[in-house]
Write a structure and sequence with these properties.
The protein is mainly alpha-helical. It has helices at about 5-35, 35-60, 75-105, 115-140, 145-175, 175-205, 210-225, 255-270, 290-300, 305-310; strands spanning about 230-240, 240-250, 280-285. The longest helix is centred in the N-terminal third of the chain and has 30 residues, at about 75-105.
Length: about 300
């Protein structure tokens, strides 16, 4: 059982707290000044806060041990959270674009430029340190939720910088349309950044295989064992918390089960060293001969009798 204060949970609590502070600062300044860019940033921070809180509960549920109902655990809750987060970010980007177009059409004036600039400077500094912390935690835990959070706040860092530039240009030129144009650009960038988060979550829900390099290394480990004749049906996936690997390896037909089990343990130990900090669920299958055709027939519901005769 994982600690009640796991790194993932702490990260979501920190990001929620930071987002709450930024919401109050930017929302007050954004409403008072009439700046679309600042208001857009405030709305984004509000969504950050909501998403980070949701992520906390998603991580809490995903860390629960497997039970009779959920025998593979609940790790995919993190993928669901990533899809929801990507969707929320996209909606916020669309709303920001709407507000920007509205300001361009109505020509409202931006005020309180100096307080707005200081608010955005504060936001950039705080967000920068938050991003560094989240990236460090994401690297240590390989959590898709923390990776999504880190990517989201990294996007915020660039959008906050864009808001600061917009306010500076408005202050220098007096052209309020610059604020709306930058707000429009931020909205587009936010939608673009959400794409990767959403796709990552969907691919985990669809049981996407581990990356090609890792799969190749797993294959090399299996085939590299001196007592493994060959292997087939190597399948991999991840739920965000754990990597799942299953494969069939061909061994000597007269080998004792005890020997086969020893070989499997040796292969599994090497596979787990590929990512020592990751949880691995490895399921080997022992074959006395290469029965890949039989396995394929079973998968596609074809008769097995003739294939088994050929195999023997």
């Amino acid at each position: 059982m994982k600690s009640e204060n796991s790194p993932q949970k702490r990260a979501t609590m920190v990001s929620s707290s930071v987002a709450t502070v930024l919401v109050f600062v930017k929302l007050i300044i954004g409403v008072a000044s009439g700046s679309v860019a600042v208001l857009a940033s405030a709305i984004d921070s509000l969504l950050d806060m909501a998403v980070s809180l949701f992520n906390f509960f998603a991580i809490k549920k995903s860390e629960e041990e497997p039970d009779d109902m959920y025998q593979y655990g609940k790790g995919k809750i993190q993928a669901i959270a990533a899809v929801i987060e990507g969707t929320v970010i996209t909606i916020s980007g669309i709303y920001i674009m709407y507000v920007a177009f509205k300001k361009l059409n109505e020509g409202t004036i931006t005020t309180l430029l100096t307080p707005s600039i200081f608010a955005m400077l504060f936001s950039i500094i705080v967000t920068y340190f938050l991003v560094q912390y989240l990236l460090k935690t994401a690297k240590e835990t390989d959590s898709i939720v923390i990776k999504a959070d880190a990517l989201h706040y990294k996007t915020d860092l660039w959008s906050n910088a864009a808001v600061l530039v917009a306010l500076g240009l408005v202050s220098l030129t007096g052209l309020d349309s610059i604020d709306a144009i930058f707000g429009l650009g931020i909205g587009i960038y936010i939608i673009y950044s959400a794409y990767e988060i959403t796709v990552d979550g969907i691919e985990i829900l669809l049981d996407r295989a581990l990356d090609g390099e890792t799969v190749a290394k797993i294959g090399e480990i299996i085939s590299g064992h001196p007592e493994v004749t060959s292997y087939h049906w190597l399948k991999t996936r991840t739920d965000g918390n754990a990597n799942f690997v299953e494969f069939h390896m061909v061994l000597r037909p007269n080998m004792l089960l005890l020997e086969a089990h020893r070989i499997a343990d040796e292969v599994e130990d090497k596979i787990m060293l590929l990512e020592p900090n990751k949880k691995w669920i490895i399921t080997p299958h022992f074959d006395p001969y290469d029965d890949e055709e039989v396995n394929d027939a079973m998968l596609h519901g074809k008769p097995l009798v003739e294939l088994e005769k050929v195999s023997h």
